[in-house]
Q: What sequence folds into this?
């Protein structure tokens, strides 16, 4: 065993140019997917607003999202609700007719 070899530290790993380029392309693709997802969510909200009779269930049948996700998108983009909420705060006084 030579003391000469034991003192040499292994060379630090550096990613190849090919890997660096591939990672840059992956980052660009992920940004494109995020932008497309935002555009789809905005278009869903626009359609719900433009076609008030379409329910979130009907919309979910045409998009890659569940009814609950479509409902969340509608809330996120302030799409008017189809009906008034049926639950009221207990802090609100009851209205008498």
A:
């Amino acid at each position: 065993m030579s003391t000469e070899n034991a003192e040499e530290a292994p060379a630090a790993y550096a990613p190849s140019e090919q890997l660096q380029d591939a990672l840059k392309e992956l980052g660009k693709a992920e940004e494109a997917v995020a932008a497309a997802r935002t555009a789809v969510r905005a278009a869903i909200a626009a359609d719900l607003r433009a076609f008030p009779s379409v329910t979130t269930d009907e919309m979910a049948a045409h998009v890659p999202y569940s009814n609950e996700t479509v409902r969340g998108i509608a809330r996120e983009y302030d799409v008017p609700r189809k009906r008034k909420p049926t639950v009221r705060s207990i802090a609100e006084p009851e209205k008498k007719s």
Observations:
- The two ends are 98 Å apart (CA to CA).
- The CA atoms of residues 52 and 82 lie 7 Å apart.
- The mean pLDDT is 89.
